[in-house]
Amino acid sequence: MEGQPSATGTFAIVGVGVFGLSTAFHLRRSHPDAKVFLIDRTRGDRSNRGAASSDFNKIIRADYGDPLYMRLALDAQEIWRADPVFSPHYHECGMLFAEEIGMGRASFDNYRDLGVDTKSEILSKEEALARFPVFQDANWSGAKENYFNPQSGWGEADEAMASFFKATCDTGATFIEATAEKLILDPEGSCSGVAISEHGIKRNVYADRTILCVGAYTEQFLANTAPERSDLQVNGRLVAAAAIQCKAKYPPEQEEMLKKAPVHFLGMWHTHGESIPPFKNRLKFNCEVSFTNMSAHGGLGREISVPPSAESQSAWSQDVPEGLKQEVANVVKNTYGSHVPGIEIESYRMCWDAVSPDQDFIIDCHPTCQNLVIASAGSFHGWKFLPTIGEYVVKRLFGTLEEPLARKWAWNREYTGSACEMYEPTRDVKAIGPFKGWSKTGGVGDDADG
Ligand SMILES: Cc1cc2nc3c(=O)[nH]c(=O)nc-3n(C[C@H](O)[C@H](O)[C@H](O)COP(=O)(O)OP(=O)(O)OC[C@H]3O[C@@H](n4cnc5c(N)ncnc54)[C@H](O)[C@@H]3O)c2cc1C
Ligand SMILES: *[C@@H]1O[C@H](CO)[C@@H](O)[C@H](O)[C@H]1NC(C)=O
Ligand SMILES: *[C@@H]1O[C@H](CO)[C@@H](O)[C@H](O)[C@H]1NC(C)=O
């Protein structure tokens, strides 16, 4: 991209998830004369909409194997704790890891190497159980090391998004409720804005810079814009993938015990899941084994992974394949076992996100489409950065992003290792059959259909 945008220019941000919302806020705050349009088909303060960032709750932790994300997450957590926009929606109940992949140990070592004053500990199973007897009937088999950080926790996702949406609109950003149809490309092939359909009325929003923050829709959106331009396409830099979640109710007499549970991650071959303790009398669970939805794209003449067309396939509902329901029920069982009787799954959700092969974000100016900026690939771990990620997008926009970050988040980069390896999808939703257990060597069990 040639030169920097003018601080009094017009910016069209497409997508009001973590990336788009945070970018709009930080852009208006650092450049009060910039005109900022924030475009999404659903309002940022609506709950249960089909965005990865809209959810019941999300985990907030700085426990990362990559010291760079650890530093970023520590900075974000300070805002979660202190800023009145976020702090009412942040709960620091601690997080326990029981796993065989060394994530806890890597985090523990990173805090030490970074000289961070942490309260995190490595615990034996006996020590973990003495502290959290609620997990005495969990499936501990295969856990190599347990790790506990009392300074991790979770956020009320829809509530925090709504609060930040209000704060962002208060800065003077203009929200437009509309579907973005495609980018507007001028005769030179540069981006001059976005064509939208606003309650059925089509119009163009012209902008000096267009910032595409459409998450799982990124690949499809670029393909729809100009399928004949292969230089514009995602081409493997990210893929739309989902993981299954559930919300469960429990008998009121269990509340006392469940309230003392931390966020719990089970990273053993038989589980791959997470749980978040009670919020509004519900428990939440994720199964981390992700999947794509490959589908022919007419314009491109090949298959790409696309998120659902029906909102019920990306919001809380019952509209979920049976096999996935069983996979997440397996997480529930292996987390609480029969020690907490009466837990009953109430609803399910496929959460669709853009995942990059190294799980690093993409925050970059498109190298061959002038005035287009991409901010995406939350890769199943981006939500916690809601308060801060936009600062980095704004820096990239104005050419001041620190070199290591610019390189890490570049559109064109070399792939060097993962932030979180297990998030890489290796199967398609249409191939998911009845759940027969995971195999020890990865993937579904030997006798599974999937
Ligand atoms: C199962 C699961 C669990 C996760 N758990 C955690 C967690 O515990 N902690 C954590 O930190 N992260 C977590 N994440 C990751 C986090 O949810 C994502 O990284 C983050 O929400 C991505 O935000 P986004 O802005 O890229 O996308 P989204 O939130 O999906 O936002 C994209 C927006 O673009 C809009 N849009 C798309 N196309 C169009 C169009 N054509 N016109 C108009 N609007 C459009 C959509 O409506 C949507 O609002 C999880 C992800 C998944 C899938
Ligand atoms: C843990 O799960 C595995 C796989 O399903 C199973 O074989 C084992 O018996 C379980 N262990 C416990 C203690 O539940
Ligand atoms: C998969 O893609 C098709 C489009 O080919 C879409 O209609 C459907 O909703 C998607 N399914 C899921 C579960 O995402």
TrEMBL record:
- Tell me which residues make up the FAD dependent oxidoreductase domain: 12-395
Question: Keyword Metal-binding: yes or no?
Answer: no
One GO MF term on file is:
saccharopine oxidase activity
Segments traversing the membrane: 6-27
Question: What keywords does the record list, in alphabetical order?
Answer: FAD, Flavoprotein, Membrane, Oxidoreductase, Transmembrane, Transmembrane helix
| Cofactor(s) needed for function | FAD
**Name of this protein:** Sarcosine oxidase
